[in-house]
Amino acid sequence: MPLLREPRPPPRAPPPWILPSLFAAFNVVLLLVFSALFFAFPCRWLAQNGEWVFPIVTGPLFVFAFFSLVSLNFSDPGILHQGSNEQGPMTVHVVWVNHRAFRLQWCQKCCFHRPPRTYHCPLCNICVEDFDHHCKWVNNCIGHRNFRFFMLLVLSLCLHSGAMLVTCLIFLLRRTPQPLYIDKVVAIVVAVAAAGLLVPLSLLLLIQALSVSAAERSCEGKCRYLQGYNPFDHGCASNWYLTICAPLGPKYMAKAVWLQSVVEPDWVPVQNLHFPMCPSGLSHSVLPGPGSGHQPQSLALRKPVKAPAGSGESEAVLELHTGLLLPLPREAPR
Question: What predicted TM-score, i.e. pTM, was given to this entire model?
């Protein structure tokens, strides 16, 4: 009888993190290559002719941009790790932020109730505190603990690209009477790359500056708070301080587990619980629909909590107002 060959196993697919990591590494290499060409040709010629101000200015800007890019690749965006399994998604947790109630959404993958402005990144498969967006250029999420480093990276890249563009244009003007050599070709290539990078980065820096001033997040672009009121807005100056200068504080994981603890006997009843219209703050599952057999909840439990200053948006929720727990009513046995 003829021997049958065993079928070959299908080739293994590469891990999902390989391509994003390679793309982030490619961006670092791209910055090094264009900066090396810049310092080796136009900047070196200007320095040899007595124009030392160009390498003195562009050198620190390159170091600042490079280390900002590398550090943002490996920074912690504010990861909230696995939560407690004592309570499941059937328990409703609500917190108040400047007279607005937010239901804490249950994360099925991380097994805890997410604080306000905390989202689960599908690319990184993690929950990030004060989530803004996932940056594919650095293959990392941008959240509470690294948003200031993201702003510094965008600012440093804008300054470095602008300095390279101005230096290359001055070099080309000084070498205009001379024939086209390799140094002029390199200067043109670097100038085009710097201009192509400077325009989108400047727009991104402007958009992020406006978002910080209004205490908004990129992932909340479609969210409209009740009557146009943003409960996270503390004013332009305070928003910039909390985002850029305020101490980061300890990680929020201890508070996230505390939110799932049992109701203590010193909790007091609170009347008139009003929910916002923002879809990210409250989902329709809080309010029982018709025919569900559940009655609306008009009674909540609250307990004042004090959190350390500068410990993040989600901890500031506990400091500003109150953590609330609403047990979901059970249906009567049939």
Answer: 0.71
